[in-house]
Amino acid sequence: MTKTFETYFEKAFHHAVDFRKTVEDNQPLPKASHEELYESLGGPLSDAGEKGDVLIDHLAKYATPGILQMSHPQFYGWVTGSSHPVGVAADWLTSAWGQNTGMYVATPAASVVEDVVGEWVVGLLGLPKESSVGFVTGATVANFVGLAAARSEVLRRVGWDVEEDGLWGAPKIHVFIGEDAHATVYSGLQYLGMGRNQVIKIKADINGRMNPEELDRALLEYKGPKIVIAQAGQINSGCFDPFDAIVPLCKREGAWLHVDGAFGLWANASPKLKHLSKGVEGADSWATDGHKWLQIPYDCGFVIVKDHVAHQRAMKIQASYLHGEIAGRRDPSQFVPELSRRARGFAAWAVLRAFGRGGVINMVENHCALAKRLEKNLGKISGIEVLNDVVLNQLAVGFGQGLSAEIQDKLTLSVLKKLSEKNECVVGGADWKGRWIMRISVITFLTTKGTIDEFSKMIECAFKEVKESIL
Ligand SMILES: *Cc1c(COP(=O)(O)O)cnc(C)c1O
Questions:
Q1: Of the candidates 324, 351, 378, which is a domain's last residue?
Q2: d(Cα 253, Cα 218) in Å, to the nearest integer?
Q3: What is the 240 CA–ligand 1 centroid distance (Å)?
Q4: Ligand 1 pocket test target in 141, 180, 182, 442 with most atoms within 8 Å of CB
Q5: pLDDT tens digits, residue range 349-360?
Q6: Residues 243 and 120 in one domain
């Protein structure tokens, strides 16, 4: 007789296989409404509990219609990776092992795997070897941790211990940030008591690239501790701040430079694309994601800090019942805000080994080439305009070239709506530089030349239908 746990695992296995097998033939958007999902998954919690095998079947049956198929080859929404199956398998093992990844003594294998993956990530990205790495939920928390290390160090240098004494009475830190920075960088500032409104915004160009002359002027204007926040890969345009110009300015001022490189930092792994992120290794901290371009299952992000002392100081947890550190052994909790958490290193280990160094580089380069192909395809359709310089994997697309701004926005929003009704692909919209755009992220490892060409036709067709009904 099979043990009960085997039945649960087998059920989950079969449901997962059924799901992945049919993804390509399915419509990617969820089919069930909020009411349907609430009804089928809700209701009062039973007193006695339920049978595990029955409820796993129930979950698969009723949650699946509410699943957005992010592992669909026609998925271009947000900047969302698609959970590589090798990573999913390693993630299942992680759950089965049930490791609380706080201390080395509690989970040696998870700790060692984080050391190993950290070295691979730092090596692939070409960042300083001495950097420490924290395994976090994503770039939002990675930004938070990087900025916490920054805050700690710039205040320590002026004789203030922010971990012990907090921010009341502390010397003011001036924070400089490009005007097209990602929203989650502001979240980091918000959590750290540095305030969303306390930043000095530096003008950016049409692609969202910070102007280094403006930064230079602003840095000279303010005295005292300084943090500069730059980005590798703007969320709409994919552009890069000019690190080779920014790094020397930060060095001159003794400013800490933090880089939000959630997806774009991976350009630095590629000899062909490295010119985009030139100089980025001169920063002090970096945030990047595993669950975006690397296709590691959710959740997985990395915070990388050159000064590991500042990193650990900012994240330290003190309590006598937590086992003392062992020299040369990694306590994973020292690099992240959480004490107890998932052993996210295992899935990252598996996906990186599956791709290999060359595989990661090829995938990143391939997605950028596919974005260029899409730009070329769309460029042939009259009335469609690619608004950004396509340097990476992002396209910002406008509809109704030459028509009034109002009509353009109407056309763009209608094309987005039409594509969502047809439910053959997933794209998003954004308000970018004063107008509505279609945002396209080529980031799923299943996307190919063929799917890109089909996608171009879907856009062309939706635009034609919308024009007929609106113009
Ligand atoms: C996605 C993204 C973030 C946030 O990352 P999460 O993994 O969603 O936490 C931050 N910055 C940029 C540029 C991003 O693309």
A1: 351
A2: 11
A3: 15
A4: 182
A5: 999 999 999 999
A6: yes
